[in-house]
Amino acid sequence: MNGQGGHLLWAPRAWLPGGWHGNVLLRIGSDGRWAEVSPGVAEPPAGATVIEFALLPGLVNAHSHAFQRAFAGLAERRESPSDDFWSWRDRMYRVALRIDAAQLRAIAAQLFVELLQGGYTQVCEFNYLQHDTTGQAYADPLALSWALADAAADVGIGLTLMPALYERAGFAQPALRDDQRRFATSAGSVWAAATAIAAHRHPQLNSGLVIHSLRAASPASIAELQRLAQSFAGPIHIHVAEQQAEVADCVAVTGLRPIEWLAKQNLLDPRWHLVHATHTVPSEIDAVARSGAGVVICPSTEANLGDGLCDLPGWLDAAVPLTIGSDSHVTRDWREELRWLDYGQRIALRQRNVSAAPQTGQPSTAERLFGLVASAGAAAAGEPLWGIAVGARADALVVDSQASHLLGVPASRALDAMVFSSPAQPWRDVMVAGHWVIRDRRHAQGDAIAQRFGQAMTELWS
Question: Which of 135, 359, 373, 418 can bridge 181 by disulfide, Cβ–Cβ 3.0-4.6 Å?
Fold first, then answer.
């Protein structure tokens, strides 16, 4: 199936905006987007590809540092009296200082295959790895960005590539540390990079902007980037309030908490996506809600790094757009991210199904979270629409009714079981822009990509 010429799919169940629908006929246009979505078609027409059980939209992975896939699972030892986010960061920097462009492409390709198998069809790459290992610019300043874009094109996943503004080591440190030398950018160079990415003709490639964090970018540079991006319609992402020490430093220097500072500067609008937003107060959540900005929560990384738990009930009650990301890629499946998004709250609050909302007709935790994350993905990724809807890119996940965690499960509870009954197998089939990129849980180039990844890991860790 190539997605051209009005190809038809028919599914007995499909997740459309608003929830499950039955007997859905779908037509894929020549542009790789859904041209028709018609529920209630009792029988598949001649020539339609019939989906056995159910179809879900792929999700946007709204926060990724692809190079950190090379570090996943390799920081789980403590050799000193204490270990926290900051000691993990120092070890991660040592990996970042060694990776070259060829290795980055190999690492990213392996990651992108795994993300497809985990149900993500678009990844937002928060890219702060810019220069060579000495800190000098490559002959093509976007060499590492193109390595990521080439990996995405090799694999067939959608990519939102976002260069990061990163110019200092902390609120009171005007320059970068030596082990941050590969990250150095300015507002002007970030804007030039985003403009070049937007003009490039990679398939399924979008452009965005990143401010690494308030500690890593001066107010003057943030204001300059805001001026340059005044007419920019794409997404703008920023790490914010991930660590309590970051909040304390921000208050000490500015007199304001990080999200409070962003709101007071009138920066926030629907283009903005606040990554982590772990340590907040209700007035900050209210300010984000008024602005139309979204939040990106990364449950597995936030747990792995000991960041803490966000005020998920506060974000949900305020109806702030919510997406998820796999960040450091210790987990590469959205089902586990959604599971731990609610499990963390259960542990903290000693309640069950914290994210469910029976008062609004949403008693299913999995369905509510999935619906929210799916609907917010478009803005985070710079797509005009997302999901199984006319005009959205034709991305889809085929649910295997014979998967062990779904055996005997009523169709009405399938999404509950997908998220909260583990372990989950890779998705049986995955479509991006009308093309099957995973078939029977495998990627056509998966073995060759894994071999190149293994070689890159050997070079980095031998």
Answer: 135
Whether domain 59-381 has CATH 3.40.50.2300: the reply is no
CATH number assigned to the domain covering 7-57+388-446: 2.30.40.10
Catalytic residue among 307, 311, 327, 333: 327
Cα separation values, 156 from 13, 47, 161, 172, 314, Å? 25, 25, 15, 42, 36
Query: pLDDT digits over 153-198, tens only?
Result: 999 999 999 999 999 999 999 999 999 999 999 999 999 999 999 9
Strands 236-240 and 54-56: unpaired
Q: Name the amino acid, one letter, at 101.
A: A
To the query of whether residue 65 is one of the catalytic residues in this protein, the response is no
CA distance 408 to 410: 6
Q: How high is the pLDDT of residue 4?
A: 41
Give span(s): CATH 3.20.20.140, the chain: 59-381
Among 276, 279, 329, 435, the active-site one is: 276
Kindly give the interhelix angle for 334-349 and 365-381, rounded to the nearest 10 degrees. 120
Residue 167 CA to residue 183 CA, distance in Å, equals 8
| Whether residue 21 lies in the annotated active site | no
Q: How many CB atoms lie within 10 A of CB 177?
A: 13
- Tell me the angle at which helices 187-199 and 219-228 cross, rounded to the nearest 10 degrees: 30
**Distance, CA of 342 to CA of 347 (rounded, Å):** 9
The mean per-residue pLDDT over the stretch 364-387 comes to: 98
pLDDT over 90, % of the chain: 96
- Please list the residue range(s) of the chain that carry CATH number 2.30.40.10: 7-57+388-446
Q: Write out the two tokens for 420.
A: 């909260």
Mean pLDDT of 298-323: 98
